[in-house]
Every structure is written in C-alpha cells, then in structure tokens.
Design a protein that fits this description.
4-stranded mixed sheet; alpha+beta; Glutaredoxin; 7 helices; globular; 4 strands; Glutathione S-transferase Yfyf (Class Pi), Chain A, domain 2; 2 domains; homodimer
C-alpha cells in the first residue's frame, strides 16, 4: 500500500492523521504540487482527478478522495473507530464531518485558491482549469469567520465535534483551522471553546503526521 | 422516524431515493423552502443549518446532511447495500460519490443559486447569508459541462458509476443530472454512455421517490 501525498497540503494531512490514529504505517510518495506533478501523465494514470491524497492498494486499485480512503481504512482496520461506533454515531460523525468540510475546509480553500498566484487558472482542484474570481477571496474569509463561530458554539456543548470521542470530524476541523493560517486567519481568543478543543486535538501525536 | 423534506429540492431526493431502494417507508414532513420555513425558529431547533433533508430518529436525535442520513440508514438497514459491500468497495463508492457531489451537484447548485432571484442573499445554503456572484453562474455551467463529460467517460468503462452495481454514487449523479434541468442543461445526445446509464437509473422505481 502507498499513499500519494504532499506534505504541506491540507487534504493529504486529513489522510495522514487518520492513518496515524489507526497506528498504521503506510509508505508515502511525494507528488510535487508546486511543480504541477499532479497534472503529468504518470500521475493522471494513478488519479485522473489530479488530486492528492490517493491510496494505492497492493492489488493496484487506487482510492482517491479523503472520504474514500477513510472508508476503506476504517473497514479494513476498525480499531480505533474514527467514523462512529454504531449506526447512530456513524450518522452523526458523517453529518458533522460533511458540514465541517463544506463550511470550513471549502471556505478556506476558496479564500486561498482565488488569491494565490500559484493557483491562477486552477481556482478549483481537478484537471479542468477554472479562473480565479476575486470576489471569492472575501467570501471565503467571511465564511471562515462564520465557521470559527459555529465551531465554538458546538464545542461549548460537546467535548469533541461529533460527541465525546475524537473522530474524523475533528480531523477535518483541525486541518481546516491550521489551513486558515495560510490566509492569515486564526481562531480569535474570545472563541474559548474552539481554542480549548484545538489545543487538545493538536497535542495528539497524530497531529504531527 | 420522520424525514424533513422538500419535494422539489435535489438533496432531499438523494435521501428519498436511498430510502426507497432500502424498501423503507418513512413519514415525511414538508419544510416550505419557498416561504423560508427553514429559517424559522421551529425548524432551526431541528436543524440549526437550516437545510433539508434531516432525519429525526425515534429517540429525538436529528441527523442532517445526506451523508449522515445514508450512513445511519445503511448501518441500521444493511440490505441492499448502497455504500459498498466490503472495505475496498466502500472506499470506491465513497470516492465516486464525493467526486460527483463536488464536481456535479455543487456545480449545478452554483449555476442555479447565483442566478435565481429567490436565492438573493442566500447563494450558499445555511443560516449565514451570502450574496450572489454573477461570475459563478457561468462557472457553474462550465463545470456542469465538464461533469457531464467525466460521467460519460466513466460510464464507458463501467455499468454503474462505482462498478457493477447501483450505489449511492449513482443516486447523487442521477439527481445532479435532473437538477441540471433547472439551469436548462441536459446530457447531450453524443454522450451515449451517460445517456444509457441515466435511462437505466431513472427507470428504477426509486427514481420517483
């Protein structure tokens, strides 16, 4: 098994933290996004969507998309559970994870990719080029602000995002908060619940993965 | 159990088709999106994100987000499987479903919500208002065109989107193709693989759910 990876990018980090929490060791292969290696023919043959992470199984099958990698690894290596412990919990984790992805991760990505020169002509991930739209820089920042507040409200009622345990929803949220640093945004001090949670999750050994 | 629903909207249809494929009957409660019922206090108490679908369990727990509802129902009612039959398959279904959601459903939604007067001030779902951005109308249409082509390529190599069986990835894709009619886009005749697949999936009894 090997994980096509790029150390600095947020989505591969979601996969790496999950792998570390499972106690697995998986060989990584660097895809140099800075040099456009994801658009080269040899990587397109691995993942036609030109994105990382992608997990190549021993039988040659490639699973890309963080959700795909997580679902595979959780079913193949159930302990410790990160996608929920029973039917209801699985639903609640998926609900929170999806919402954090839409309202948080996509918000920061919008603010970042429409701003940075390196993403000119590639404001969205994938093989099809899309131009940057300057209005999305501001919208992305506003959405990130609202996401931080939502996170703080939730973490005022619950120790972790989906309940009493650390789950995949926390992984996406912690990666999002750190990714927000790339657009020079951070959790404001007054959001004490979110800051308490962020300190806790980022002190787990997996956070360095 | 009851499903907070809006008949015409694409996301509740993803939940309804899944429920029909499982052979379940779940009471629905209409949330009148045309009148802004999703923003009223009584619905916010059910789902603070102000979106449908949302599934209220008999113990009073509410699970929103299509992914959350699917995961709960699949675990509680495993047959027939719609999220994959084993670890690898679960990964592949989640990969395709996520990609179809990002590249297809979000593309059409972008073209629609930034255009239609009724979404003024609410170009994104959720409680926080965001203004429409006219450039996203064109981008949404271009992304939808590219999505149709991707779908056709995939359905030239596989009977259904994630492999030999009908899965949740097909549900999101069929709902997306029909939703594209709202921005007056349809699968072009030359995309014969995608059209063959669309006829097949839309002739399943669940398509009317």
């Amino acid at each position: 098994m090997k994980l096509y990876n790029h150390e600095a990018a947020p989505n591969p980090r979601r996969a790496r933290i999950f792998i570390a929490e499972k106690g697995l060791e998986i060989e990584t292969v660097n895809v140099d996004l800075m040099k456009g290696a994801q658009f080269k023919d040899d990587f397109r043959a691995v993942n036609p969507w030109c994105t990382v992470p992608a997990l190549e199984l021993d039988d040659g099958t490639t699973i890309s998309e963080v959700q795909g990698i997580w679902r595979y690894l959780e079913a193949a290596h159930p302990e410790p559970p990160l996608l929920g412990v029973d039917a209801k919990d699985a639903g609640i984790v998926a609900m929170w994870e999806n919402r954090v992805m839409l309202d948080g991760l996509q918000a920061v990505a919008e603010g970042f990719r429409n701003f940075v020169k390196g993403f000119k002509g590639h404001a969205l991930p994938g093989p099809d080029g899309y131009e940057q739209i300057p209005e999305l820089v501001e919208r992305g920042r506003l959405r990130t602000e609202n996401f931080f507040k939502m996170l703080d409200r939730r973490l005022g009622e619950s120790e972790y995002i989906a309940g009493d345990s650390y789950t995949a929803a926390d992984i996406t949220a912690q990666v999002t908060v750190d990714f927000a640093g790339w657009i020079k945004m951070e959790l404001p001090d007054e959001l004490a619940n979110a800051k308490r949670w962020h300190d806790t999750v980022n002190s787990r050994p997996s956070a360095k993965a």
